[in-house]
Amino acid sequence: MRDTLRRLLRQRKAAVGGTLLLGFLLVALVGPWFVMDPTELMGQPHQPPSSAHWFGTTGQGQDVLAQTVVGARETLAIGFAVGALVTLVGALVGITAGYLGRRVDDALTLTTNIFLVIPGLPLAIVLGAYLPSGPFRMVVVLTFAGWAWNARVFRAEALSLRGRDFVAAAVVAGESHLRIITRELLPNMASLVASSFIGNTLYAVGAQVGLEFLGLGDVGSVTWGTNLYWAGNDAALLTRSWWIFVPTGICIALVGFSLTLLSSAIDELTNPSLRAPPKAPSAAVVHAVASPEQEAATPGALLSVRELSIEYMTQAGPSRVVDQVSLDIAPGEVFGLAGESGSGKSTLGSALLRLLPSSAAITHGRILFDGTDVTALSPEALRAFRWSRVSMVFQSAMSALNPVLTLGEQFHDTLAAHGGNSRASSYARARELLSMVGLKPELVDAWPHQLSGGMRQRVGIALALALEPRLVVMDEPTTALDVVVQKELLQRVVELKERLGFAVLFITHDLPLLLALADRVGILQAGKLVEVDTAQRLRTDARHPYTRLLLSSFPHLGAADAPTPSPDVLEQATSALKPPLAASPGGRR
Ligand SMILES: Nc1ncnc2c1ncn2[C@@H]1O[C@H](COP(=O)(O)OP(=O)(O)OP(=O)(O)O)[C@@H](O)[C@H]1O
């Protein structure tokens, strides 16, 4: 907690926003003792700023500085009180609904939705007419009108946390609902609570000033809203007495600005991916290659990667994660890319479709695909190129499918984006693709959550094959699956590859799996391709020490001194993957 606070203070946005807000709080707390009585008629009306009245006088002769300073107290007090109450009520209702679910959720969600459809202003007017005037009325009115949005946000967060293992573990351990909510859920929502509180305070200050300006507050009190109300009533605009409303207006804008800065700082602190990444060089793709002969693709190769280097721009400067990699993939070949975690496999795979994040740049080299220089494609050409010529199967079957669209719709989106025809023809193609990967065609109307992990990954493969690409990049497609499902899936991939003739770049850290599946394997170490060879040769005659180290970490792969190897994974996988894999295309590195 102290560490979070320290990091928050180090953030420029938080420092500026916090200092501004603290300044206003200080003025609101002690300022009223140092200024004149804001209600007393001290001088001539409509007097511009002078040494007697630094901010001038109002249309009735009161001191504008005193009104601005004293007005801060009630405005901010109500703002923070409403901010806290709206957050509290919203969190209570939302978390209870999301965590308990069923009937409680139905009832609370219905209530929340009713509040959401009632327009805030009429609700505030009606409530205001029945409640005794004063700050209390404003707090009740704004809390009543504002809690529902917050409840929706907290409910969504509770629903997502409820499914997490640590909550299931607390339930199994017999913890009470109250304890689970306060000990398991709430601490995990700390950043949401903090940013909601700041956002709600911003809402409260704005809404309060708005209502009071319309005369719906207590016009006898001194707040920033009533200052503006009286400025309007005293014709400050008509008489061009700008000093009556400008100081209050500036204060409201500055408080809003400081709260916005704080809210954004909290978001960035709790979610580092929101921080603006350091900028990649403006020429994100550089085409230089060392030698002219490297300019050309290898004859007969489907893909030629030439001296490719990729850098991420980090706070500490550029970090090269792919370093001068050159490789070729032949039509119909399965090329395996192996290497330990963080060696740059996924970065290299994403670069083939130019799917790198904005903080990454291809700083050197070329990607030549079937006569196309991928590194030089315009955004429009790239859109047409991706998926129709090179597609991808992503690692996480869980998150690669859109949870709110049926499978048919997801196929239709992909086909329509590449000039597909009617929805009916997309659905027909989707059924065909589903049966091709061994799923029932009727699943076209299913939602992703109705499928198992293995089924989802098959859908991912079907989607990747929808436009009959010539190369499919598979980035750890089986990592999250158990060995049986993994085996079935890979068998299917090999069958489809034999039938349709596409090539595969298969990325994984599971070297035994690759040696069984791939025609050739490349070993990536810290961004460098240290060895490329046929799977057969790598198994028995690996040359690079890093390859040998990787192989030796799997004792069943022939290490003579390995303790009684368990059933040979390689043998199992090879026998599963019929027909036998083709020999390597020669002549490439
Ligand atoms: N957005 C990013 N900003 C900065 N560095 C990054 C970013 N994404 C990845 N990296 C770094 O790039 C390197 C390569 O990451 P990459 O994901 O390509 O490795 P990998 O071999 O696919 O790993 P794994 O097998 O664990 O998926 C890692 O050191 C990682 O920390």
TrEMBL record:
Residues 562-589 are annotated as: Disordered. It is found in: Cell inner membrane; Cell membrane. GO terms for biological process: transmembrane transport. Residues 305-551 form the ABC transporter domain. InterPro entries: AAA+_ATPase, ABC_Ni/Peptide_Import, ABC_transporter-like_ATP-bd, ABC_transporter-like_CS, MetI-like, MetI-like_sf, OppC_N, P-loop_NTPase. The keyword Cell membrane applies. Residues 72-263 form the ABC transmembrane type-1 domain. GO terms for cellular component: plasma membrane. Coiled coil: none annotated. It is a peripheral membrane protein; Multi-pass membrane protein. The chain crosses the membrane at residues 14-35, 76-100, 107-130, 136-154, 242-266. Keywords: ATP-binding, Cell inner membrane, Cell membrane, Membrane, Nucleotide-binding, Translocase, Transmembrane, Transmembrane helix, Transport. Its main location: membrane. One of its GO terms (molecular function) is ATP hydrolysis activity. It comes from the Bacteria. Pfam families: ABC_tran (PF00005), BPD_transp_1 (PF00528), OppC_N (PF12911). PANTHER family: ATPASE AAA-TYPE CORE DOMAIN-CONTAINING PROTEIN (PTHR43297:SF14), OLIGOPEPTIDE TRANSPORT ATP-BINDING PROTEIN APPD (PTHR43297). Belongs to the ABC transporter superfamily. Belongs to the binding-protein-dependent transport system permease family. This is Dipeptide/oligopeptide/nickel ABC transporter permease/ATP-binding protein. It comes from Myxococcus llanfairpwllgwyngyllgogerychwyrndrobwllllantysiliogogogochensis. The lineage of its organism: Bacteria, Pseudomonadati, Myxococcota, Myxococcia, Myxococcales.
